[in-house]
Design brief:
Layout lengths: L2 H9 L22 E3 L6 E4 L1 E4 L5 H8 L5 E4 L9 H4 L4 H6 L7 E5 L5 E5 L12 E2 L4 H6 L4 H15 L7 H12 L5 E4 L6 E4 L1 E2 L22 E5 L2 E8 L7 E8 L5 E6 L6 E4 L2 H11 L2 E2 L1 H6 L6 E2 L5 E3 L3 E8 L11 E4 L4 E7 L38 H12 L8 E8 L6 E4 L10 E3 L6 H19 L10 H10 L18 H7 L2 E2 L25 E3 L14 H30 L1
Parallel strand pairs: 1-11, 2-14, 3-4, 3-15, 4-11, 8-9, 15-26, 16-17
Antiparallel strand pairs: 5-6, 7-10, 9-20, 12-13, 13-14, 18-23, 19-22, 19-25, 20-21, 21-22, 23-24
The structure holds flavin-adenine dinucleotide (FAD) and 2-acetamido-2-deoxy-beta-D-glucopyranose (5 copies).
Amino acid sequence: MEFSTWRSVSIISFTILAFLGSGYSQQAPRYSFLNQAAEAPAISYYDYIIIGGGTAGCPLAATLSQNHKVLLLERGDAPYGNKNVSNMVNFPDTLQDTSPTSPAQRFVSEDGVINSRARVLGGGSCLNAGFYTRASPNYVREAGWDGRLANESYEWVEKIVAFEPTMPQWQTALKEGLLEVGVTPFNGFTYDHEFGTKIGGTIFDSDGNRHTAADLLEYANPEGLTVLLHARVSRILFKVKGRSRPQAFGVIFWDQNGRKHKAYLNKGTDNEIILSAGALGSPQLLILSGIGSRDQLEALNITVVLDQPMVGQGMSDNPMNAIFVPSPNPVATTLIQVVGITKFGCFIEGASGSNFVVSGSNSEGAPGRNFGMFSPQTGQLATVPPKERTPEAIARAVEAMNSLQEYHFQGGFILEKTRGPLSTGFLKLNNQNIDENPSVTFNYFKEPADLERCVRGIEAIERIIKSPGFSNFTYSDVQMGTLLNISTHFPVNTLPRSSEDTRSPEQYCRDTVMTIWHYHGGCQVGQVVDLDYKVIGTDALRVVDGSTFRFSPGTNPQATVMMLGRYMGIKIQNERFARQEAKRKNNS
Ligand SMILES: Cc1cc2nc3c(=O)[nH]c(=O)nc-3n(C[C@H](O)[C@H](O)[C@H](O)COP(=O)(O)OP(=O)(O)OC[C@H]3O[C@@H](n4cnc5c(N)ncnc54)[C@H](O)[C@@H]3O)c2cc1C
Ligand SMILES: *[C@@H]1O[C@H](CO)[C@@H](O)[C@H](O)[C@H]1NC(C)=O
Ligand SMILES: *[C@@H]1O[C@H](CO)[C@@H](O)[C@H](O)[C@H]1NC(C)=O
Ligand SMILES: *[C@@H]1O[C@H](CO)[C@@H](O)[C@H](O)[C@H]1NC(C)=O
Ligand SMILES: *[C@@H]1O[C@H](CO)[C@@H](O)[C@H](O)[C@H]1NC(C)=O
Ligand SMILES: *[C@@H]1O[C@H](CO)[C@@H](O)[C@H](O)[C@H]1NC(C)=O
């Protein structure tokens, strides 16, 4: 049967659930404590200086501001008023914006996978796909966290940023498919991490508006907090003379006019500098400040403050492989809402809908034709192996997209994320420039178990696509063959694969690996920081963010990153009060 005929037959009974870009963008809240770095004095003093206003940094600053003078330094702008950040349908726009003022800073790992890091108040929670889900009680225990305080901290976060999603039919079909292939039981809507299939939370509300870690600043005490935007911290300052351990006492930061500022800790042994610059930013800044392996520091002409070879080690990025499933029926735009937590070590999730604009660019200058979350324009180019994902290859994919018909864009992606992962790599600096990305190697699939999990994940996706529950949103094999034949240069991967593709499942995993942006490590607990997140071998310095993780928490990390910011804020306050109380007792 002619492709377009059966398409128009089946389209009739369907309602289009697609969200349309409403043009809505959140109004800037009148946070009295939000300022530009250029307006800051050349020298200032605080009890806590937090570097990085990201997913962990914002909840941490809001909490510490209750009783102390806190400075939060963020290199990016505020997220408010930027529709690319605020609207769910604009998800790909930020990632494809590679300008120096973009909230997303693109980086390419040495593995060749194109990736992205945040440069905006609210951090990765302003760029991400919104899925909100907690770590398992097991993960919480193994991290050494107090389970009750962790739960209270999750709840504190959830009151502001987490929502129950409305479930368009495509996500419901994915859920049904997961259950039919045995990813059971169905756990309903829950933030909890349990085997089976569930509907998770989302930081997008029912209008598709994003709520971010920056919104957690609503909890802040305005008297206690100063947030500086466009404040690029280039160095942490240490006192070394006459001490057995270097003690952090200040930072150097630069404003958007290129002016240098210094912020120091107030006198008092309890005051601290806390690094929350993320998995790339935190190890980078430690090294720039003289904490790293002696060899690397000397090669960069950086004075050694502490020889710490573990800084920048243990970098991991969970491999993600995704399959585009063309749909005969229209689909709503959704990011991630359903997850299958399998017993074989991978998580299966999906995102649906895409954007087809004939002009190649819509009225608002948005990307035009794209595959939503997995558009080649955002760097998610999986049809060629990682090291071949050059700007020319991206241009060829975009060109190929321009020759497709509108119906080719109709569908969704089912992805699998490898749990853990077990494979690790490392981060190195190429130079002393804080604005440049460090060089990072993730060593995807170096450990055979990661590869095995990927292969099983792809097999499960294949079964889901063929399951009765998913049938409304996929073509039969015969029809799919025709569809693929129409477009041999299809710019995204689909199943079934072409008969000419003789790659082993393992090679397929390696060749089509992408990122789900859950990279972590570089300042791991037990290696660079202790169980209290204090930098081992130093005083008055901690790291609190995703760089401290050994494994990615839950199915998706942001809930736990925000939780950790709140959790450590409470812990730091409690410890401080306990010390003061002990001192008071001693004196009386
Ligand atoms: C595209 C994308 C999609 C994702 N999807 C999901 C999802 O659906 N669900 C989920 O749970 N997770 C998702 N994640 C992952 C999650 O968002 C991150 O793991 C999390 O945001 C990391 O938080 P962090 O606090 O460690 O770092 P960040 O949030 O990146 O915070 C670091 C902050 O420090 C600032 N900074 C860095 N260096 C300096 C410096 N020298 N001076 C001043 N400031 C500095 C940065 O600008 C940034 O704001 C996604 C991530 C991305 C990028
Ligand atoms: C939004 O994204 C588009 C596409 O990447 C970009 O051209 C535009 O400048 C961005 N707008 C804002 C306000 O950042
Ligand atoms: C934390 O909450 C989870 C459910 O979200 C529960 O399973 C766990 O027992 C709780 N932990 C504690 C210590 O209360
Ligand atoms: C380090 O300093 C030496 C001597 O000043 C110089 O030759 C070298 O280029 C510098 N290296 C770097 C990486 O800046
Ligand atoms: C497919 O769509 C039709 C029409 O909306 C609906 O009646 C049917 O239940 C759907 N099938 C499945 C398996 O969800
Ligand atoms: C694919 O296209 C070729 C040439 O146009 C045609 O001969 C072949 O029958 C097509 N295959 C399918 C499965 O439609």
